């Protein structure tokens, strides 16, 4: 309820999340709220840590202070990523948002390492922790604020598909876990003289480090070139096949240059005997309509295929049968018959799952198996086969 109020109050046209200006406002809102909330949390926890003399509480306080820096990085990340394309960066600056998420993750790791050291020193030189009801109550209230902040980040991060805001949401959730552990240690200290504070500090540091590791992994993936979203892949293929004369698709490539900056290319199989002008009009319309609907830039390559040649259709049927004896092959495409007379070449690509780490020898073995099966029907024909990897998993 509070999240919706803030969004409606500070984000003009908040429902138009595909608008880059609106998206930028969401990022600013997340950053400003993060700064204010974490400054409050730092003040509360640092005061509590000093009052009760707890290294675990103090560590948790400075973890929140690092989150202030993270929120500043998020704001600058959204500002820089919104810069338009230029000569040096023709696809825009959208990946800066991923870099800002990486910086946030690095700050989280730095805090984790620093407080492992502090907690270890506390274990070696234990100091009594003084339990007090008021500081303990303040700690519980701070946990509730962090729960809300985590949900707030998750909500707006999901609305605009922001890895930086989602990273902040995960970081906030890890803070909830660490703060809850700290509160538990403070409560336990009332009933024991054991030096539990340092050990709990170590546990909190471990949680922080684990969160930082996951954040780095999540933000590095799109920078390195992660697999595209399956829903996007399915949508591109389904929408393209809905157009007249497009009988099949293959070789879909998706390049991510930042949220809302996706470039995709795909091969569309079209009948050979259709007018080039007519099919070009259909392809051109499909590019524009699918690009607008999915908020991407789509380029479609036409692959003419024969749909009425009896010899080629019969050969394709034989290939379909032959491939049943090679289960590693998922499908084939770009099939054509080249040559004159009885000796011809059957040229095509076969698709195998990317998880199959095939050696060159194993690929040759697959090609030979298919050739052997085809020669049972076409002894004078040779199959020229290219093995494709399906990195999209569809």
What are the key terms here?
394 residues, alpha/beta, Alpha-lytic protease prodomain-like, 3-stranded mixed beta sheet
Secondary structure layout:
Elements: H1 2-10, H2 20-52, H3 55-81, H4 96-124, H5 133-160, H6 163-188, H7 196-224, H8 230-241, E1 248-256, E2 262-271, H9 276-294, E3 297-305, H10 310-322, E4 329-338, E5 345-353, H11 360-375, E6 382-390
Parallel strand pairs: 2-3, 5-6
Antiparallel strand pairs: 1-2, 4-5
Keywords: Membrane, Transmembrane, Transmembrane helix, Transport
Organism: Clostridium punense
Pfam families: Cation_efflux (PF01545), ZT_dimer (PF16916)
In short, what is this structure?
The chain is an alpha/beta fold. Helix content is 61%, strand content 14%.
Structure description:
This is Cation diffusion facilitator family transporter. It is found in: Membrane. InterPro entries: Cation_efflux (IPR002524), Cation_efflux_CTD (IPR027470), Cation_efflux_CTD_sf (IPR036837), Cation_efflux_TM (IPR058533), Cation_efflux_TMD_sf (IPR027469), CDF_Transporter (IPR050291). Helices cover 61% and strands 14% of the residues. The chain has eleven helices and six strands. The strands form two sheets. A three-stranded mixed sheet has the order 1-2-3, with helices on one face. A three-stranded mixed sheet has the order 4-5-6, with helices on one face. The chain is elongated. The model has no long low-confidence stretch (mean pLDDT 83).
